[in-house]
Amino acid sequence: MKELFTLLQKIKENPVMYIDKPSITCLRSFLTGYIDSLITLGFTDINSCGIEGFQEWVQERAKTNVTQSWDGIILFCSGSERAAFNRFFEEFEQFLKQKNDSKIKKSEDVSRLSEEMSFPRFDIYNEIPSNIKKRPGMFLGASSITRLDMLLRGYSFARREVGVPPTEPEREFEGFQSWVEEKYGINSGQSWSKIILFYSVDEHEALQKFFELFEEYLNRNKSLEVDENNG
Length: 231
Known about the structure:
Blueprint: H1 2-13, H2 15-19, H3 24-41, H4 54-62, H5 70-78, H6 81-101, H7 124-134, H8 136-140, H9 145-161, H10 168-174, H11 176-184, H12 192-198, H13 203-230
Helix pairs in contact: 3-9, 4-5, 5-6, 9-12, 12-13
């Protein structure tokens, strides 16, 4: 999957542009959203997304059977988010070299959909007030507002990359940033997740606060629509 490799190189060279900082946890969440989005749209599948087999390879390299994700294992072996971020690219490069040398699987390009094909109705933005709120661990791996932010960024980035127009829930979410800034009286250029995290004790509390704020935001939008219709 050439698109993934190109994206990883861009993130490596300028992580701040994509995930705010060199962090393997942020990288993992961003890639999860990115790959899941492409799979949902039908542009690739789990067996040709380019990173299949990496989890097992990292576990074997670390000589562990612990049920920990590849980013968690690399982080544990590295000691810091930045060191783990840098180590990921070293490990992934070796993984690809070994994969190519052993011819485990020939590289594949993303199979494009025809322009006439309709896109699936699944939209992760619809999952926020329901499934993600109820089961954050399933979607994010941990109760973390930063992971949610990165997941959504990766998801939306993939859709823009392949030219899929934003859905109505995605467009509605775009206004959440300015609403949070107005809510807290902040105009610092910081993301909505960083603003909420700044006013919270930790990632978990910030995520819970996000769900409360997002519900308030959605209700406010519904009220505005009702007022406009009545007017």
